[in-house]
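MODEL INPUT / OUTPUT PAIR
PAIR INDEX: 1
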Amino acid sequence: PLQQIIIDLETEGIEVNLEDVEVNSGCLLTYKGYHVVLYIQDHGMYVTHSLKGQSGYKFHIADCDKLDEMRRHGRYYRYKVSSNKSGQFLVTGYSGEKQIEEYARLKVCKFCLRKLNYDGYNHSSKPVQEKIVDEFDIGKYFSKYSSFFKELPNSSNDSPTSSYGDN
C-alpha cells in the first residue's frame, strides 16, 4: 500500500477531503507523511480557462489564508494531493455539454507564497511577485523544502539488521 501511495502521488494524485491533509510545523502540507501540493481537480465550467492558463483555480503549497477560509465556511470540496514535480495537473470540467479531462499548468496560490515568504515574496515589488508566480517551479519547491520532512523508513529486505537486543 505504501508503494501504491507513492506511485499515485507522483502521477495522478490522490483525491482527499481537506481535513485529511495535515500541516507540519513549517505550515507545509502533508498526506500520510509525504510532502504534497493540494489542488481542486473539478474546474467545472472554468476548465477551458484553466487549460489556456487564464485564471482558474490555484494549487496550494502551504496552509494559507485561503485554505483557512475553506475550512471556516465548511467548503470541503474534493481536493487532490500530489507530489508530481511536472507542474501539470489533471483537471476536469465541461464546455457546453462536452466533458473535458486534460492536464493543465495551474498557478501557485499567492496566499501560500505570502505565508512562506517564498523567495522573498513578501518584500518584493508587484512585478517581482508576479515573476515569482509565473516562474514557480514545483520541483525546485519540493527540493528547497525537503529538509522539513522526516524520511520515511525503508522497509526493504536489504536494510541492515538492528544491533539492538530483543529486550
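PAIR INDEX: 2
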Amino acid sequence: LRRYDDCFFFHVIGSNAIPQGVLELNGTVLGGHPRIVIHGYVPSLRPLFAKARLSVAPLRWGAGVKGKINSAHQLGVPVVCTSLAVSGMHAVDGEHALLADTPHALAAAVLNGYYNATTWHRLMWGGRRLLERRFSASRAATGVLEVLALLRETNTLMGMKSLAITDARPRIYADLRAASALGGYFFNFTKLDAAAAL
C-alpha cells in the first residue's frame, strides 16, 4: 500500500499466475483516482517497498518461513497478514505483524496499520527485531554451531562417525549433512571449498 494525497493505492505483486478476477481490478478508480495497480512479477521489490506503507500477505496456504514476510521486515515495511502467513515464524499479533483470517478482519487490520502511526511504528520496529532475532545470518550461524555441538556431544553412531573423521573439510561436510537430516536446518551442498572449511 502506498499513500498519495491522503488516499492509498493497492499494488498487487507476485510471480504466480494472477486470477482473472484480480486482473479485472487493475485500474479500479475510487474517488477519482485509480487505486489498484496489478504488477505481477517485478524483478526487485526495493523500488516499490521504498514507497510502501504496508505489506499485505493474505495467504491461505503455504509452509515454512515466508520470504515475503521477511523481505518486508528487512525493508522496514510493516506487515498485515493471515496467521498462516507467519505460521512457525514466532510472530506475535500486534508486535511483529497484524494478523487476521477473514476478509473483514484483514480490511480492518489494513486500515489500523495504515492510519494508526503508533501501530505502524511498533510493527516496523518489531518486524526488524524479529528478523534479527530469528532469521538473520548471525542467527543461522549460531544455529548451525549449536547443531554441530550437539552432534559432537551426542553418543550416536552419526556423532561418533563425524568425530572419527580427522580432515576438517569432510568432517564439517558430514556434520552439516547430518544436521540437515535431523531437521530444522537444511543445506544443499555440492562441494565445500577450502575457505568454507576454515
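PAIR 2 NOTE: Residues 117-135 form the longest helix (19 residues).
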